[in-house]
Design brief:
Helix content is 62%, strand content 0%. By secondary structure, it is mainly α. It has a single domain, classed as lambda repressor-like DNA-binding domains (434 Repressor (Amino-terminal Domain), Orthogonal Bundle).
Length: 102
């Protein structure tokens, strides 16, 4: 049995859904147009925009259509955060030595 969705996740779903709807409208696209371009059902766009859960793949398909995919990919890159860069500096080797074949 699945656990209840945490409140921060629910808020994130709603916020992202609203952002998707706003971007779609700014681009003068209907939900049907986005659905066709993303290869999904128009009802799926409605669910996404209303903050209902969807698969990551579907969300990324829609974000690609809206020109937001690269921003999301960059936002999840750990090397784009101060903490991630600091941890990378501490953990990544300064050089890599080539070992012999045998």
């Amino acid at each position: 049995m699945a656990t209840p969705t945490p409140v921060p996740v629910t808020r994130g779903l709603r916020t992202i859904g609203q952002n998707v709807a706003d971007q779609r409208k700014l681009m003068n696209l209907t939900a049907k147009m986005v659905a066709e371009r993303a290869g999904v059902n128009p009802q799926t766009i409605s669910k996404l925009e209303n903050g209902e859960g969807t698969t990551l793949e579907i969300a990324l398909r829609v974000l690609r259509v809206l020109g937001l995919l690269d921003a999301v990919v960059t936002a999840t890159d750990p090397f784009q955060t101060p903490r991630g860069r600091l941890m990378a500096d501490e953990k990544l080797p300064q050089r890599v030595r080539v070992r012999g074949d045998g």
